[in-house]
């Protein structure tokens, strides 16, 4: 059973547009929500992360919005660029998991067209 | 040094071969992980080492054998693999606990023939 549900599976956006990826979770014990960016043949790289006591976090063109009551969080990529074409994974973890086990979403393949 | 280095980058092996994947980090992280990733899927946790001791084995078949010789090195020994074991094998490290501060390596692309 997937503990973090991610949508859409894929999306195509024009250069300069906004990419939006959504994730939902059930376990309220999760207290750390990172997003990873992965290019083909490479490992996932941490893009941005948020904790549930914050509703929004912005780093450059990337913004996480967090809705604790709805148990949802989303990644917005503003002014999308062809170099943003990659697979994006949301994830969640909880402090009671002593060994840092990340629960990943299924992933979203983003294609930014020129 | 903020990298996790994995070698080799690519590996092709027969089903009767024995090979090893290597991972090294010098960030002082005391938790190290092996993940397996199939195409278009998220990484799946295989093993967790904490302070050089195996802490989690996610019911991985015995043909995969992890080893943590010291706090900077992590190996994955492979023996008698099946074609369905072909995947990207990722190593990661983090400060102990809580899933924060993960750094992934670039992975080893393994093909079993």
Record field, number of beta strands of chain A: 11
**What would you report as the Rg of chain A, rounded to the nearest angstrom?**
14 Å
**Helix/strand/pairing category of chain B:** mainly beta
Q: Please identify the oligomeric state.
A: heterodimer
> Main beta sheet of chain B: strand number and arrangement?
7 strands, mixed
What gyration radius of chain B follows from the Cα positions, in whole Å?
13 Å
Keywords:
heterodimer; A: about 110 residues; mainly beta; five-stranded antiparallel beta sheet; about 50% strand; B: mainly beta; seven-stranded mixed beta sheet; globular
Strand and helix layout:
The complex is a heterodimer of chains A (114) and B (113).
Chain A: E1 4-7, E2 10-14, E3 19-25, E4 33-38, E5 45-50, E6 56-59, E7 62-67, E8 72-77, E9 86-92, E10 103-104, E11 108-113
Parallel strand pairs in A: 2-11
Antiparallel strand pairs in A: 1-3, 3-8, 4-5, 4-9, 6-7, 7-8, 9-10, 9-11
Chain B: E1 4-7, E2 10-13, E3 18-25, E4 31-37, E5 44-50, E6 53-57, E7 64-70, E8 73-79, E9 87-94, E10 103-104, E11 108-112
Parallel strand pairs in B: 2-11
Antiparallel strand pairs in B: 1-3, 3-8, 4-5, 4-9, 5-6, 7-8, 9-10, 9-11
Compact description:
With 114 residues, chain A is mostly beta strands.
Care to describe what's here?
Chain A has 114 residues and is an all-beta fold. In chain A, 0% of the residues lie in helices and 52% in strands. In chain A, the strands form 2 sheets. In chain A, strands 2, 4, 5, 9, 10 and 11 form a 6-stranded mixed β-sheet that branches. In chain A, strand 4 (33-38) and strand 5 (45-50) form a beta hairpin. The model of chain A has no long low-confidence stretch (mean pLDDT 93). The radius of gyration of chain B is 13 Å and the shape is globular. In chain B, a hairpin with a 6-residue loop joins strand 4 and strand 5. The termini of chain B are far apart. The A-B interface holds A 32, 34, 36, 41-46, 49, 87, 89, 91, 93-95, 97-102, 104-107, 109 and B 4, 6, 31, 33, 40-43, 45, 48, 50, 55-56, 88, 90, 92, 94, 96-100, 102-107, 109.
């Amino acid at each position: 059973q997937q503990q973090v549900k991610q949508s859409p599976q894929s999306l195509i956006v024009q250069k300069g547009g906004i990419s939006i990826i959504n994730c939902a979770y059930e376990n309220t014990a999760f207290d750390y929500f990172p997003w990873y960016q992965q290019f083909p043949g490479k490992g996932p790289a941490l893009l941005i992360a948020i904790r549930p006591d914050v509703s929004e976090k912005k780093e450059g063109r990337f913004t996480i919005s967090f809705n604790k009551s709805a148990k949802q969080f989303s990644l917005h990529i503003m002014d999308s660029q062809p170099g943003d074409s990659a697979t994006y994974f949301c994830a969640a973890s909880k402090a009671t998991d002593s060994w840092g086990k990340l629960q990943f979403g299924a992933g979203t393949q983003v294609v930014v067209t020129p | 040094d903020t990298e996790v280095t994995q070698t080799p980058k690519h590996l092709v092996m027969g089903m009767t071969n024995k090979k090893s994947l290597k991972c090294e980090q010098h960030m002082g992280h005391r938790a190290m992980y092996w993940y397996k990733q199939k195409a278009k899927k998220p990484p799946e946790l295989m093993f967790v080492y904490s302070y050089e001791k195996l802490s989690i084995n996610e019911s991985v078949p015995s043909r995969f054998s992890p080893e943590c010789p010291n706090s900077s090195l992590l190996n994955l020994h492979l023996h008698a693999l099946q074609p369905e074991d072909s995947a990207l094998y990722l190593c990661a490290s983090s400060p102990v606990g809580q899933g924060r501060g993960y750094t992934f390596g670039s992975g080893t692309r393994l093909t079993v023939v």
